[in-house]
Amino acid sequence: MNPNHPDLHVSLTGQHQEIALVRLSRPGKRNALNDGLILALRDAFQNLPPTVRAAVVHGEGEHFCAGLDLSELQERDASAGVHHSRMWHTALDCVEKGAVPVVAALHGAVVGGGLELASACHIRVADETTFYALPEGTRGIFVGGGGSVRVPKLIGAARMADMMFTGRVYNAADGERVGLAQYLVPAGTALDKALELAARIASNAPMTNYALMHALPRIAEQTADHGLFTESLMASVAQSAPEAKARVRAFLEGKAAKVRKD
């Protein structure tokens, strides 16, 4: 499976072709994002085959993504600027709010729009070469790809403001500590770990994964009373699925693996 764009490669992997491997392929530009690549990401996530139950996004070469390709930055009036930003929002919403959970395998630069893309994924695995930055503040611009919504949910508004005010760069260890990634692995192993996690995710009941992607973020932003009611509705829907009933039955019959400490 390949979208019609030379800088994005999509392939299927896993025993049953259940994992979509999405690779940013502009290594000469440190995988910087131009409009064509953003639209290709949108199209890829809108058109995943029905066999796919999880996805992994990674970058070719030495970096995940160095952000917006400034060589293609155009002067726009306010109206055109709004529409351009909204185009990014639509594309990254297809990652965050699409059909399957997405794991980002991070290495090297995760900068600007690259961090916006990473924050749209559901799990982030960083290797020891990873570094994070939001240089828009020092370049006289502002994030426009959803970063002002997604990044503060990971690290808080104060830390994001610091990154933009001062140009602060987080290394891999500090980034994991503050919440920019959930996993930190040795250099060169982020993709392997991301694929391992994607395989685990793909083995879940699809409705459980859907609830985690679509219900949990909404519940977290609702009042407690509304959130509890939404939780009840989602729990009822999830447990009514035939696969969920089969899994519970297997557990009660002693056929399912028990939770153990690693």
What does it look like?
By secondary structure, the chain is an alpha/beta fold. It folds into 2 domains: 8-202, 2-enoyl-CoA Hydratase, Chain A, domain 1, CATH 3.90.226.10; 206-252, Lyase 2-enoyl-coa Hydratase, Chain  A, domain 2 (Orthogonal Bundle), CATH 1.10.12. 47% of the residues lie in helices and 15% in strands. It has 10 helices and 9 strands. The protein has a 6-stranded mixed sheet, sandwiched between helices. A hairpin with a 5-residue loop joins strand 1 and strand 2 (19-24). Helix 1 (35-46) packs parallel to helix 2. The longest helix has 19 residues, at 78-96. The model has no long low-confidence stretch (mean pLDDT 92).
Topology:
Elements: E1 8-13, E2 19-24, H1 35-46, E3 54-59, H2 78-96, E4 102-106, E5 109-111, H3 113-120, E6 123-127, E7 131-133, H4 147-155, H5 157-166, E8 170-171, H6 172-178, E9 183-185, H7 190-202, H8 206-221, H9 224-240, H10 242-252
Parallel strand pairs: 2-3, 3-4, 4-6, 5-7, 6-9
Antiparallel strand pairs: 1-2, 7-8
Helix pairs in contact: 1-2, 3-4, 4-5, 8-9
The parts where pLDDT drops under 50 for at least 5 residues are none
Helix content estimate: 40-55%
The secondary structure category is alpha/beta
Q: Number of helical runs?
A: 10
Strand order of the largest sheet: 1-2-3-4-6-9
Number of domains: 2
What amount of the residues lies in strands?
Answer: 5-15%
The main β sheet shows up as:
6 strands, mixed
